[in-house]
Amino acid sequence: MANPFSLEGKVALVTGANTGIGQGIAIALAAAGADIAAAGRSEPTETQKAVEALGRKFLSIKVDFGSVEPVQRVVDETVAAFGKVDILVNNAGIIRRADSIEFSEADWDAVMDTNLKVVFFLTQAFAKQALKQGGGKVINIASLLSFQGGIRVPSYTAAKSGLAGLTKILANEWATKGINVNAIAPGYFDTNNTEALRADQDRNAAILARIPAGRWGRPEDIGGAAVFLASSAADYVQGITLPVDGGWLAR
Ligand code: NAP
């Protein structure tokens, strides 16, 4: 029987794959057999090395996801290089922290644009291509704040809660067309995004005390969930937001 988790012959477009969770996912998808197009604003040198060491092809697309302007170009460049695109991982994202009482419009717009608006329009551009190919897989990187409120991150919580909803509506519209749309909600992962939390001793201790696994997540902890959702093993999985959180939501 063929391995249902194999991504041999597949092409995955991963946003923000130069570091952190996106890098962990790109390497895991490559290890499962996929060629990788990495779209982001920083050169993904380390990721490229790791992917090529696994014997997979790698394309870097330089792009700023602060606006929707480049989304079609990202899909076009991937298809020009590889002939198709089968998997989209919407990982690039930002966070802005401030008390809600004084939160600025600029911090609201920046996070909503990158984490939600651009994700929708990149997914739309991807889906137009996937429909021509007979299907595809979309994996959105959500958050615990797709389920919970959080604190001092109003635009981030709004965007990630919105992303869980977007995951469901797109699954509803595209499930019969061969496109699976799902999300992964990482718990607390040791990346640039959470540097400020780890630097705050009290916050760090409180977070660790609540994680049943007793440690922060590492980028390599998330790859298996992405491989699953990108593979034919997940053909009948639609619209879920899968927590990979060391048990945080269970507590
Ligand atoms: P990270 O290390 O800060 O990575 C974020 C990635 O997004 C980087 O590649 C970054 O590029 C890219 N990016 C941000 N703004 C961009 C823009 N305008 N144009 C192009 N690329 C842009 O943080 P991470 O933790 O790995 O975050 C990845 C995803 O996981 C995000 O969606 C985040 O919200 C989500 N997440 C993280 C955690 C966690 O605990 N770490 C928990 C839940 C969800 P640069 O390197 O150039 O900045």
Keywords:
251 residues, Rossmann fold, seven-stranded parallel beta sheet, 8 helices, 42% helix, binds NADP nicotinamide-adenine-dinucleotide phosphate
What can you see in these coordinates?
The chain is α/β, with parallel strands linked by helices and about 250 residues long. Helix content is about 40%, strand content about 15%. It has one domain (about 10-250): NAD(P)-binding Rossmann-like Domain (Rossmann fold, 3-Layer(aba) Sandwich). The protein has eight helices and seven strands. It has a seven-stranded parallel sheet with strand order 3-2-1-4-5-6-7, sandwiched between helices. Strand 1 (about 10-15), helix 1 and strand 2 form a beta-alpha-beta unit. The model has no long low-confidence stretch (mean pLDDT about 95). NADP nicotinamide-adenine-dinucleotide phosphate binds near residues 65 and 93. NADP nicotinamide-adenine-dinucleotide phosphate binds near residues 21 and 94.
Order of helices and strands: EHEHEHEHEHEHHHE
Structural class: alpha/beta
Assign the CATH architecture. Answer: 3-Layer(aba) Sandwich
Give the amount of beta strand, in percent. 15-25%
CATH 4th-level superfamily: NAD(P)-binding Rossmann-like Domain
End-to-end separation in angstroms reads 39 Å
Number of helices, where a helix is a run of at least 4 consecutive DSSP H or I residues: 8
> Whole-number average pLDDT?
97
Number of domains: 1
Please report the total strand number as a whole number: 7
Read across the widest sheet, the strand sequence of neighbours is 3-2-1-4-5-6-7
